[in-house]
Amino acid sequence: MFEGAITHQDFAGHKGTIRTGDVQWMTAGRGIVHSEMPAGDGVSEGLQLWINLSSKDKMIEPRYQELERKDISRAETEDGVEARVIAGEAFGVASPVYTRTPIMYVDFTMRPGSRLHQPVPEGWNAFVYVVDGEGVFGRETATAHHCLVLGSGDGVSVWNRSARPLRFVLAAGQPLGEPVVQHGPFVMNSHAEIQQAMEDYSYGKNGFERAGQWSSSA
Question: Cβ neighbours of residue 89 under 8 Å, at least 6 residues apart?
Answer without folding.
Answer: 95, 104
